[in-house]
Specification:
CATH topology of the largest domain: Four Helix Bundle (Hemerythrin (Met), subunit A)
CATH class of the largest domain: Mainly Alpha
Radius of gyration: 32 Å
Number of domains: 3
Structural class: mainly alpha
Largest sheet: none
Number of helices: 13
């Protein structure tokens, strides 16, 4: 997977990078003063100056992710978003340089962008999976160089899993994801163009017979339930519906207030009604659905 910017975009990116690299880093006291001006007085000029001085940091970190094949300009802009977030959150009273604090936010913003756009298939959501995605190539290359081999064996996969705290199956799955690329399901398999990848997919949905069976069972259960409710008096029906059938169920205490009885009495009526429904449904369904009560 790769992306090549058009010449005009490449020039714009080059100019932006050149200007960013010409900015001087701030002295510690200067960045603290700017951070205080933003925090205490919401001085946007100070915030802008703080961000501008460290745009080169966003550029530098963004370039480390260009091998994922995404537009360099987009990577830099995502880094700038992280930089601005860091500038707005930075606490000048902590004994910490702004560049150190901002690096985490910049890297996190760029990594989130890469995960969202590197593939149409979601790559990973947990911190362990993200760590695996961004460290897999480096660790694999380290192992291959050490063993003077190409590719990973079981021992290599186990080593990566232990290093990153993930399962070996996760390493195997990520290895496959990183070695391939997204491909249209309409792409043809052979040169004759008569068969595409989509035609090779297995339909994991229920077959027509299963669908009909489920619908029939659902209809039968609905009929049995309505019949069982019909055996209850009005108060019992009201309690069962509000306690078990309505989308927003109510408590025993609320029902007690509605009916002018104690919540313990409501519980007793509910229990009796459930027993009556269980017996009613057992009579017509041979006990198949009695466990629901």
């Amino acid at each position: 997977m790769s992306y090549i910017d058009d010449p005009q975009t490449q020039k714009a990116n080059t100019d932006f990078i050149r200007n960013a690299m010409n900015e001087d880093y701030l002295e510690k006291e200067d960045e603290l003063n700017l951070a205080r001006a933003w925090r205490d007085h919401e001085d946007e000029k100070s915030l802008h100056k703080l961000v501008q001085a460290y745009t080169r940091l966003a550029v530098s970190l963004a370039m480390k992710f260009k091998h994922y094949g995404l537009p360099v300009g987009d990577l830099i802009q995502e880094g700038n978003i992280g930089l601005m977030e860091a500038a707005m959150r930075f606490d000048p009273e902590r004994d910490l340089r702004f560049s150190t604090y901002a690096s985490w936010w910049i890297r996190a913003s760029i990594q989130d962008y890469v995960l969202r756009n590197w593939s149409i298939v979601r790559t990973g959501s947990t911190s362990a999976q993200k760590s695996l995605f961004f460290n897999m190539r480096r660790l694999r290359a380290k192992i291959e160089n050490r063993n003077e081999t190409e590719g990973l064996d079981d021992a290599g996969r186990q080593e990566i899993a232990e290093t990153l705290g993930v399962k070996v199956n996760d390493v195997i799955a990520m290895e496959g994801r990183l070695s391939g690329s997204d491909q249209s399901l309409n792409a043809t398999i052979s040169d004759d163009g008569e068969q595409d990848w989509q035609s090779m997919l297995t339909d994991e949905g229920p077959n027509p017979e299963d669908v009909v069976t489920v619908l029939k069972d659902g209809q039968s259960r609905s009929e049995w339930l309505n019949s069982a409710l019909g055996d209850l008096d009005d108060r019992e029906q009201s309690i069962i519906r509000q306690r078990h059938l309505d989308e927003d169920t109510v408590t025993l205490e609320v029902l007690g207030d509605q009916l002018g009885i104690s919540k313990e009495r409501v519980r007793q009526i509910e229990k009796r009604a459930m027993e009556k429904m269980k017996n009613s449904i057992t009579d017509v369904s041979d006990g198949e659905y009695a466990h629901l009560f």
